[in-house]
Specification:
It is found in: Cytoplasm. It is a single chain. By secondary structure, the protein is α/β, with parallel strands linked by helices. It has 13 helices and 20 strands. The strands form five sheets. It has a ten-stranded mixed beta sheet with strand order 9-7-5-2-10-1-11-15-19-20, with helices on both faces. The structure holds guanosine-5'-diphosphate, 6-O-phosphoryl inosine monophosphate and magnesium ion.
Length: 430
Protein backbone atom coordinates (compact mmCIF):
# COMPACT_ATOMS: atom_id res chain seq x y z
CA UNK A 1 0.00 0.00 0.00
CA UNK A 2 1.14 3.46 -0.73
CA UNK A 3 3.87 5.38 0.92
CA UNK A 4 3.89 8.95 -0.34
CA UNK A 5 6.62 11.51 0.20
CA UNK A 6 5.57 15.15 0.08
CA UNK A 7 8.26 17.79 -0.40
CA UNK A 8 8.58 21.50 -1.15
CA UNK A 9 9.90 22.31 -4.64
CA UNK A 10 11.30 25.80 -3.95
CA UNK A 11 12.57 27.59 -0.82
CA UNK A 12 9.71 26.59 1.50
CA UNK A 13 6.22 27.85 2.28
CA UNK A 14 4.76 26.37 -0.90
CA UNK A 15 1.65 25.15 0.94
CA UNK A 16 2.84 21.72 2.10
CA UNK A 17 0.65 21.89 5.19
CA UNK A 18 -2.46 22.50 3.14
CA UNK A 19 -1.57 19.69 0.70
CA UNK A 20 -1.11 17.24 3.57
CA UNK A 21 -4.38 18.35 5.07
CA UNK A 22 -6.12 17.89 1.72
CA UNK A 23 -5.01 14.25 1.58
CA UNK A 24 -5.62 13.89 5.33
CA UNK A 25 -8.73 11.73 5.42
CA UNK A 26 -7.14 9.22 3.03
CA UNK A 27 -4.07 8.77 5.22
CA UNK A 28 -3.33 6.62 8.24
CA UNK A 29 0.08 8.05 9.21
CA UNK A 30 1.78 11.41 8.61
CA UNK A 31 5.50 11.39 9.35
CA UNK A 32 7.69 14.44 9.81
CA UNK A 33 11.19 13.33 8.87
CA UNK A 34 13.43 16.42 8.95
CA UNK A 35 13.81 19.85 10.47
CA UNK A 36 12.13 21.08 13.62
CA UNK A 37 10.24 24.17 14.65
CA UNK A 38 11.92 26.20 11.91
CA UNK A 39 8.99 24.99 9.79
CA UNK A 40 5.71 26.85 9.73
CA UNK A 41 2.69 25.27 8.09
CA UNK A 42 -0.59 27.16 7.93
CA UNK A 43 -3.72 25.09 7.53
CA UNK A 44 -7.14 26.70 7.21
CA UNK A 45 -10.11 24.52 8.17
CA UNK A 46 -13.62 25.97 8.03
CA UNK A 47 -12.13 29.48 8.13
CA UNK A 48 -10.09 28.67 11.26
CA UNK A 49 -6.34 29.06 10.95
CA UNK A 50 -3.85 26.60 12.47
CA UNK A 51 -0.10 27.32 12.50
CA UNK A 52 1.98 24.20 13.03
CA UNK A 53 5.73 24.21 13.57
CA UNK A 54 6.89 20.96 15.08
CA UNK A 55 3.89 18.68 14.83
CA UNK A 56 3.14 17.07 11.44
CA UNK A 57 0.14 18.65 9.69
CA UNK A 58 -1.67 15.29 9.80
CA UNK A 59 -2.36 15.93 13.49
CA UNK A 60 -5.40 17.97 12.44
CA UNK A 61 -7.14 15.00 10.82
CA UNK A 62 -9.03 12.69 13.18
CA UNK A 63 -7.83 9.10 12.80
CA UNK A 64 -4.39 9.97 11.44
CA UNK A 65 -1.39 8.93 13.52
CA UNK A 66 1.20 11.72 13.46
CA UNK A 67 4.83 10.63 13.80
CA UNK A 68 7.94 12.66 14.62
CA UNK A 69 10.68 10.62 12.98
CA UNK A 70 14.29 10.10 13.95
CA UNK A 71 15.46 12.79 11.50
CA UNK A 72 13.65 15.58 13.35
CA UNK A 73 15.18 17.87 15.97
CA UNK A 74 12.77 18.47 18.83
CA UNK A 75 12.45 21.55 21.04
CA UNK A 76 10.54 20.02 23.94
CA UNK A 77 9.12 23.32 25.21
CA UNK A 78 7.68 24.00 21.75
CA UNK A 79 6.38 20.43 21.46
CA UNK A 80 4.27 20.74 24.59
CA UNK A 81 3.17 24.30 23.81
CA UNK A 82 1.87 23.06 20.47
CA UNK A 83 0.20 20.01 21.99
CA UNK A 84 -1.47 22.18 24.66
CA UNK A 85 -2.54 24.77 22.08
CA UNK A 86 -4.20 22.14 19.90
CA UNK A 87 -5.83 20.33 22.82
CA UNK A 88 -7.29 23.67 23.97
CA UNK A 89 -8.91 23.99 20.52
CA UNK A 90 -10.37 20.49 20.74
CA UNK A 91 -7.81 18.59 18.64
CA UNK A 92 -6.92 15.15 19.96
CA UNK A 93 -3.12 14.74 20.04
CA UNK A 94 -2.99 11.47 21.97
CA UNK A 95 -1.99 9.35 18.94
CA UNK A 96 1.31 11.23 18.46
CA UNK A 97 4.39 9.02 18.20
CA UNK A 98 7.96 10.27 18.66
CA UNK A 99 11.11 8.40 17.66
CA UNK A 100 13.44 7.56 20.55
CA UNK A 101 16.28 8.41 18.17
CA UNK A 102 15.17 11.98 17.38
CA UNK A 103 17.53 14.61 18.76
CA UNK A 104 16.48 17.31 21.21
CA UNK A 105 17.35 20.99 20.84
CA UNK A 106 18.94 22.00 24.15
CA UNK A 107 18.69 25.68 25.14
CA UNK A 108 22.40 26.28 24.50
CA UNK A 109 21.88 25.55 20.80
CA UNK A 110 19.25 28.26 20.51
CA UNK A 111 21.76 30.70 22.04
CA UNK A 112 24.51 29.52 19.68
CA UNK A 113 22.25 29.84 16.62
CA UNK A 114 21.46 33.46 17.43
CA UNK A 115 24.92 34.53 18.50
CA UNK A 116 26.69 32.88 15.54
CA UNK A 117 24.35 34.66 13.12
CA UNK A 118 25.20 37.96 14.80
CA UNK A 119 28.91 37.24 14.41
CA UNK A 120 28.53 36.34 10.73
CA UNK A 121 27.25 39.88 10.11
CA UNK A 122 26.83 40.44 6.37
CA UNK A 123 27.50 36.73 5.72
CA UNK A 124 24.62 35.58 7.95
CA UNK A 125 22.23 32.87 6.73
CA UNK A 126 19.10 34.51 8.13
CA UNK A 127 18.19 31.43 10.18
CA UNK A 128 15.00 31.16 12.20
CA UNK A 129 17.07 31.25 15.40
CA UNK A 130 15.53 28.03 16.68
CA UNK A 131 18.81 26.17 17.24
CA UNK A 132 18.38 23.94 14.19
CA UNK A 133 21.90 24.26 12.69
CA UNK A 134 23.83 23.74 15.95
CA UNK A 135 21.68 20.72 16.85
CA UNK A 136 22.26 18.98 13.52
CA UNK A 137 25.96 19.87 13.83
CA UNK A 138 26.01 18.16 17.26
CA UNK A 139 24.32 15.11 15.75
CA UNK A 140 27.01 14.79 13.07
CA UNK A 141 29.68 15.62 15.62
CA UNK A 142 28.30 12.82 17.83
CA UNK A 143 27.72 15.09 20.82
CA UNK A 144 23.95 15.33 20.42
CA UNK A 145 21.28 14.48 22.99
CA UNK A 146 18.56 12.09 21.86
CA UNK A 147 15.02 11.65 23.16
CA UNK A 148 15.96 8.23 24.57
CA UNK A 149 18.74 9.79 26.70
CA UNK A 150 16.10 11.58 28.77
CA UNK A 151 14.96 8.28 30.26
CA UNK A 152 18.29 7.61 31.95
CA UNK A 153 19.36 10.51 34.14
CA UNK A 154 22.99 9.50 34.48
CA UNK A 155 23.40 8.99 30.72
CA UNK A 156 21.68 12.33 30.11
CA UNK A 157 24.04 14.09 32.50
CA UNK A 158 27.09 12.48 30.84
CA UNK A 159 25.92 13.55 27.39
CA UNK A 160 25.11 17.12 28.38
CA UNK A 161 28.41 17.47 30.24
CA UNK A 162 30.33 16.10 27.24
CA UNK A 163 28.61 18.54 24.90
CA UNK A 164 29.16 21.47 27.24
CA UNK A 165 32.88 20.75 27.64
CA UNK A 166 33.16 21.93 24.06
CA UNK A 167 30.19 24.29 23.79
CA UNK A 168 31.07 26.34 26.86
CA UNK A 169 34.51 27.04 25.41
CA UNK A 170 32.85 28.33 22.25
CA UNK A 171 30.25 30.37 24.13
CA UNK A 172 32.67 31.98 26.55
CA UNK A 173 35.93 32.27 24.57
CA UNK A 174 34.65 32.99 21.07
CA UNK A 175 31.33 34.67 21.66
CA UNK A 176 32.03 36.20 25.06
CA UNK A 177 28.87 34.72 26.57
CA UNK A 178 28.33 33.13 29.98
CA UNK A 179 29.06 29.43 30.26
CA UNK A 180 25.97 27.21 30.63
CA UNK A 181 25.53 25.00 33.71
CA UNK A 182 24.99 21.31 32.96
CA UNK A 183 22.69 20.97 36.00
CA UNK A 184 20.30 23.56 34.66
CA UNK A 185 20.15 21.96 31.21
CA UNK A 186 19.61 18.49 32.69
CA UNK A 187 16.89 19.77 35.05
CA UNK A 188 15.04 21.47 32.20
CA UNK A 189 15.14 18.39 29.98
CA UNK A 190 14.09 16.08 32.83
CA UNK A 191 11.07 18.27 33.56
CA UNK A 192 9.48 16.94 30.35
CA UNK A 193 10.14 13.23 30.89
CA UNK A 194 6.83 12.16 32.39
CA UNK A 195 4.77 13.87 29.72
CA UNK A 196 7.05 12.63 26.97
CA UNK A 197 7.14 8.93 27.89
CA UNK A 198 3.81 7.73 26.43
CA UNK A 199 4.60 9.18 22.99
CA UNK A 200 8.05 7.65 22.56
CA UNK A 201 8.77 4.43 20.71
CA UNK A 202 10.54 2.64 17.87
CA UNK A 203 8.75 4.55 15.15
CA UNK A 204 10.71 2.88 12.30
CA UNK A 205 9.37 -0.49 13.48
CA UNK A 206 5.85 0.88 13.97
CA UNK A 207 5.88 2.30 10.45
CA UNK A 208 7.22 -0.93 8.93
CA UNK A 209 4.38 -2.84 10.61
CA UNK A 210 1.84 -0.27 9.46
CA UNK A 211 3.04 -0.48 5.85
CA UNK A 212 2.92 -4.29 5.99
CA UNK A 213 -0.64 -4.02 7.27
CA UNK A 214 -1.61 -1.94 4.22
CA UNK A 215 -1.81 1.45 5.91
CA UNK A 216 -1.34 4.66 3.90
CA UNK A 217 1.69 6.64 5.05
CA UNK A 218 2.64 10.18 4.04
CA UNK A 219 6.10 11.52 4.84
CA UNK A 220 5.84 15.30 5.02
CA UNK A 221 9.00 17.39 4.53
CA UNK A 222 9.76 20.55 6.40
CA UNK A 223 11.58 23.23 4.33
CA UNK A 224 12.20 22.42 0.68
CA UNK A 225 14.48 21.31 -2.16
CA UNK A 226 16.57 24.48 -2.37
CA UNK A 227 16.95 24.59 1.43
CA UNK A 228 18.29 20.99 1.48
CA UNK A 229 21.80 20.87 2.94
CA UNK A 230 23.09 18.77 0.01
CA UNK A 231 20.98 19.85 -2.96
CA UNK A 232 20.04 23.41 -2.02
CA UNK A 233 21.70 26.79 -2.38
CA UNK A 234 24.43 26.03 0.15
CA UNK A 235 25.36 27.71 2.49
CA UNK A 236 21.97 29.48 2.40
CA UNK A 237 20.12 26.33 3.39
CA UNK A 238 18.82 24.60 6.46
CA UNK A 239 20.85 21.82 8.07
CA UNK A 240 18.82 18.76 7.11
CA UNK A 241 17.82 16.78 4.01
CA UNK A 242 14.47 18.20 2.95
CA UNK A 243 14.41 16.29 -0.36
CA UNK A 244 12.73 12.92 -0.85
CA UNK A 245 15.88 10.97 0.06
CA UNK A 246 15.67 12.48 3.53
CA UNK A 247 12.32 10.77 4.01
CA UNK A 248 14.12 7.40 4.15
CA UNK A 249 16.96 8.33 6.48
CA UNK A 250 14.70 10.52 8.61
CA UNK A 251 11.98 7.93 9.16
CA UNK A 252 13.55 4.50 8.70
CA UNK A 253 11.24 3.72 5.76
CA UNK A 254 13.44 2.15 3.04
CA UNK A 255 13.50 3.54 -0.55
CA UNK A 256 12.00 0.31 -1.91
CA UNK A 257 8.74 1.05 -0.08
CA UNK A 258 8.13 4.51 -1.47
CA UNK A 259 5.49 4.65 -4.20
CA UNK A 260 4.94 8.30 -5.00
CA UNK A 261 6.65 11.65 -4.52
CA UNK A 262 4.49 14.76 -4.51
CA UNK A 263 6.20 18.15 -4.76
CA UNK A 264 4.38 21.30 -3.81
CA UNK A 265 5.19 24.17 -6.17
CA UNK A 266 3.88 27.66 -5.55
CA UNK A 267 2.75 29.54 -8.70
CA UNK A 268 5.31 32.21 -7.83
CA UNK A 269 8.49 31.93 -5.76
CA UNK A 270 9.25 33.05 -2.21
CA UNK A 271 12.23 32.90 0.05
CA UNK A 272 12.85 33.87 3.68
CA UNK A 273 16.38 34.63 4.83
CA UNK A 274 19.47 35.35 2.78
CA UNK A 275 20.85 33.82 -0.42
CA UNK A 276 20.60 33.99 -4.21
CA UNK A 277 17.18 34.31 -5.87
CA UNK A 278 17.28 34.86 -9.67
CA UNK A 279 13.63 35.85 -10.25
CA UNK A 280 13.37 38.09 -7.16
CA UNK A 281 11.16 41.14 -7.67
CA UNK A 282 11.91 44.55 -6.21
CA UNK A 283 8.96 46.27 -7.85
CA UNK A 284 5.21 46.75 -7.48
CA UNK A 285 4.53 43.16 -8.61
CA UNK A 286 6.59 41.78 -5.71
CA UNK A 287 4.76 44.03 -3.24
CA UNK A 288 1.43 43.09 -4.80
CA UNK A 289 2.03 39.32 -4.59
CA UNK A 290 3.30 39.64 -1.00
CA UNK A 291 0.08 41.37 0.04
CA UNK A 292 -2.40 39.34 -1.97
CA UNK A 293 -0.66 36.10 -0.94
CA UNK A 294 -0.13 37.15 2.72
CA UNK A 295 3.52 36.25 2.31
CA UNK A 296 4.83 36.82 5.81
CA UNK A 297 6.68 34.02 7.64
CA UNK A 298 4.53 31.67 9.74
CA UNK A 299 7.48 31.13 12.08
CA UNK A 300 9.27 34.47 12.34
CA UNK A 301 6.76 36.90 10.81
CA UNK A 302 9.44 38.16 8.38
CA UNK A 303 8.18 39.53 5.03
CA UNK A 304 8.97 36.86 2.45
CA UNK A 305 11.07 37.79 -0.59
CA UNK A 306 8.98 37.37 -3.74
CA UNK A 307 9.79 36.41 -7.35
CA UNK A 308 8.17 35.03 -10.49
CA UNK A 309 7.77 31.30 -10.99
CA UNK A 310 11.12 29.71 -11.87
CA UNK A 311 10.83 26.52 -13.91
CA UNK A 312 14.56 25.83 -13.88
CA UNK A 313 14.04 25.28 -10.16
CA UNK A 314 10.83 23.33 -10.80
CA UNK A 315 12.59 20.91 -13.16
CA UNK A 316 15.50 20.57 -10.75
CA UNK A 317 13.06 19.69 -7.96
CA UNK A 318 11.41 17.09 -10.22
CA UNK A 319 14.77 15.46 -10.94
CA UNK A 320 16.29 15.53 -7.44
CA UNK A 321 13.12 14.28 -5.72
CA UNK A 322 11.88 11.90 -8.44
CA UNK A 323 8.57 13.75 -8.41
CA UNK A 324 5.58 11.79 -9.73
CA UNK A 325 2.96 14.49 -9.03
CA UNK A 326 3.06 18.23 -8.50
CA UNK A 327 0.65 20.29 -6.45
CA UNK A 328 0.61 23.80 -7.95
CA UNK A 329 -0.56 26.20 -5.22
CA UNK A 330 -1.75 29.80 -5.05
CA UNK A 331 -2.78 30.06 -8.70
CA UNK A 332 -5.56 32.37 -7.45
CA UNK A 333 -2.99 34.99 -6.45
CA UNK A 334 -2.57 35.76 -10.18
CA UNK A 335 -6.27 36.51 -10.71
CA UNK A 336 -5.80 40.25 -11.20
CA UNK A 337 -2.66 40.29 -13.37
CA UNK A 338 -2.74 41.18 -17.08
CA UNK A 339 0.20 38.95 -17.87
CA UNK A 340 2.43 36.52 -16.01
CA UNK A 341 6.15 36.12 -16.72
CA UNK A 342 7.57 32.63 -16.08
CA UNK A 343 11.30 31.94 -15.97
CA UNK A 344 12.22 29.09 -18.34
CA UNK A 345 16.04 29.35 -18.36
CA UNK A 346 18.90 31.54 -17.14
CA UNK A 347 21.45 33.68 -18.86
CA UNK A 348 24.79 33.48 -17.08
CA UNK A 349 27.43 35.78 -18.59
CA UNK A 350 25.88 35.39 -22.04
CA UNK A 351 25.44 31.59 -21.86
CA UNK A 352 21.96 30.04 -21.71
CA UNK A 353 21.38 27.54 -18.88
CA UNK A 354 18.35 25.28 -19.03
CA UNK A 355 19.46 23.43 -15.88
CA UNK A 356 20.64 24.76 -12.51
CA UNK A 357 24.20 26.07 -12.95
CA UNK A 358 26.76 23.82 -11.34
CA UNK A 359 28.50 26.62 -9.44
CA UNK A 360 26.90 28.71 -6.76
CA UNK A 361 28.54 31.87 -8.09
CA UNK A 362 26.98 31.28 -11.53
CA UNK A 363 23.63 30.90 -9.78
CA UNK A 364 24.25 34.24 -8.06
CA UNK A 365 24.78 35.80 -11.50
CA UNK A 366 21.87 34.08 -13.25
CA UNK A 367 19.54 36.43 -15.10
CA UNK A 368 16.10 34.92 -15.79
CA UNK A 369 14.92 34.35 -19.36
CA UNK A 370 11.14 34.79 -19.27
CA UNK A 371 8.21 33.67 -21.36
CA UNK A 372 5.13 35.73 -20.68
CA UNK A 373 1.66 34.20 -20.50
CA UNK A 374 -1.64 36.05 -20.57
CA UNK A 375 -3.50 36.45 -17.28
CA UNK A 376 -7.18 35.48 -16.91
CA UNK A 377 -8.46 38.49 -14.94
CA UNK A 378 -11.11 36.48 -13.16
CA UNK A 379 -11.72 35.13 -9.66
CA UNK A 380 -10.88 31.40 -9.79
CA UNK A 381 -11.32 30.66 -6.08
CA UNK A 382 -14.67 28.94 -6.71
CA UNK A 383 -13.35 26.59 -9.44
CA UNK A 384 -13.39 22.92 -8.44
CA UNK A 385 -12.56 21.17 -11.72
CA UNK A 386 -9.93 21.90 -14.33
CA UNK A 387 -12.68 22.68 -16.83
CA UNK A 388 -14.09 25.34 -14.45
CA UNK A 389 -10.86 27.34 -14.86
CA UNK A 390 -10.79 30.10 -17.47
CA UNK A 391 -8.97 29.01 -20.66
CA UNK A 392 -5.91 31.17 -19.92
CA UNK A 393 -5.56 29.65 -16.45
CA UNK A 394 -5.79 26.16 -17.98
CA UNK A 395 -3.10 27.15 -20.49
CA UNK A 396 -0.90 28.42 -17.66
CA UNK A 397 -1.17 25.09 -15.82
CA UNK A 398 -0.49 23.11 -19.01
CA UNK A 399 2.50 25.31 -19.90
CA UNK A 400 4.03 24.75 -16.48
CA UNK A 401 3.26 21.04 -16.53
CA UNK A 402 4.98 20.54 -19.89
CA UNK A 403 8.19 22.07 -18.65
CA UNK A 404 8.23 20.33 -15.26
CA UNK A 405 8.39 16.80 -16.60
CA UNK A 406 5.69 15.46 -14.26
CA UNK A 407 1.95 15.88 -14.12
CA UNK A 408 0.26 18.58 -12.04
CA UNK A 409 -2.29 16.60 -10.07
CA UNK A 410 -3.49 19.26 -7.64
CA UNK A 411 -4.13 22.97 -8.24
CA UNK A 412 -4.70 25.29 -5.27
CA UNK A 413 -7.15 28.13 -5.80
CA UNK A 414 -7.45 29.49 -2.24
CA UNK A 415 -6.20 28.95 1.32
CA UNK A 416 -9.14 26.86 2.56
CA UNK A 417 -9.26 23.06 2.64
CA UNK A 418 -11.97 23.05 -0.04
CA UNK A 419 -10.29 25.51 -2.44
CA UNK A 420 -8.61 22.94 -4.59
CA UNK A 421 -8.83 21.18 -7.94
CA UNK A 422 -7.79 17.53 -7.99
CA UNK A 423 -6.97 16.56 -11.57
CA UNK A 424 -5.54 13.14 -10.70
CA UNK A 425 -5.60 11.24 -7.45
CA UNK A 426 -2.09 10.85 -6.13
CA UNK A 427 -3.23 7.70 -4.33
CA UNK A 428 -5.45 5.82 -6.76
CA UNK A 429 -2.84 4.53 -9.19
CA UNK A 430 -0.55 2.94 -6.68
P1 LIG B 1 4.23 25.35 4.08
O1 LIG B 1 5.31 25.77 5.01
O2 LIG B 1 4.74 24.77 2.79
O3 LIG B 1 3.22 24.44 4.73
O4 LIG B 1 3.47 26.69 3.64
P2 LIG B 1 3.00 27.91 4.59
O5 LIG B 1 1.82 27.46 5.37
O6 LIG B 1 4.16 28.47 5.33
O7 LIG B 1 2.59 29.00 3.50
C1 LIG B 1 1.63 28.75 2.55
C2 LIG B 1 0.49 29.75 2.71
O8 LIG B 1 -0.31 29.72 1.55
C3 LIG B 1 -0.45 29.44 3.85
O9 LIG B 1 -0.87 30.66 4.41
C4 LIG B 1 -1.62 28.72 3.19
O10 LIG B 1 -2.86 28.90 3.87
C5 LIG B 1 -1.67 29.41 1.86
N1 LIG B 1 -2.13 28.59 0.73
C6 LIG B 1 -1.83 27.30 0.44
N2 LIG B 1 -2.37 26.95 -0.76
C7 LIG B 1 -3.00 28.05 -1.23
C8 LIG B 1 -3.71 28.35 -2.44
O11 LIG B 1 -3.85 27.52 -3.34
N3 LIG B 1 -4.21 29.63 -2.57
C9 LIG B 1 -4.03 30.58 -1.61
N4 LIG B 1 -4.55 31.81 -1.82
N5 LIG B 1 -3.37 30.33 -0.47
C10 LIG B 1 -2.85 29.10 -0.28
P1 LIG C 1 8.58 25.47 5.89
O1 LIG C 1 8.56 24.04 6.35
C1 LIG C 1 10.98 28.87 4.58
C2 LIG C 1 15.11 29.08 6.07
C3 LIG C 1 15.47 30.21 7.02
C4 LIG C 1 16.93 30.42 6.62
C5 LIG C 1 17.42 29.00 6.36
C6 LIG C 1 18.13 28.35 7.54
O2 LIG C 1 7.57 26.34 6.53
O3 LIG C 1 8.61 25.56 4.40
P2 LIG C 1 17.31 27.39 9.87
O4 LIG C 1 16.62 28.05 11.04
O5 LIG C 1 16.56 26.24 9.30
O6 LIG C 1 18.74 27.03 10.19
O7 LIG C 1 17.38 28.54 8.73
O8 LIG C 1 16.26 28.23 6.05
N1 LIG C 1 13.96 28.25 6.49
C7 LIG C 1 12.76 28.29 5.93
N2 LIG C 1 12.26 29.10 4.96
N3 LIG C 1 10.21 27.90 5.10
C8 LIG C 1 10.68 27.06 6.05
O9 LIG C 1 10.00 26.00 6.49
C9 LIG C 1 12.00 27.27 6.54
N4 LIG C 1 12.78 26.66 7.47
C10 LIG C 1 13.97 27.26 7.41
O10 LIG C 1 14.67 31.36 6.78
O11 LIG C 1 17.01 31.12 5.41
MG1 LIG D 1 5.99 27.49 5.98
Amino acid sequence: MPVIVLVGAQWGDEGKGKATDLLGDRLDYVVKFNGGNNAGHTVVIKGEKYALHLLPSGILTPGVTPVIGNGVVVDLAVLFQEIDGLEARGTDTSRLRISANAHVIPSYNRSLDKVSERYLGARRIGTTGRGIGPTYADKMNRIGVRIQDLFDESILRQKVEAALTFKNQVLSKIYNRQAVKADEVVAELLSYVDRLRPYVGDTALELAEAIDAGKVVLCEAGQATLLDVDHGTYPFVTSSNATSGGACTGSGIPPTRIDRVVAVLKAFTTRVGEGPFPTELHDKFGDYLREVGHEYGTTTGRPRRIGWLDLVIGRYAQRINGVTDFALTKLDNYDDLDEIPVCVAYDVHGVRHDEMPISQSDFHHATPIYETLPGWKQDISGCRTFEDLPKDAQRFVEFVEQRLGARISIVGVGPGREAVIERHSVLSEV
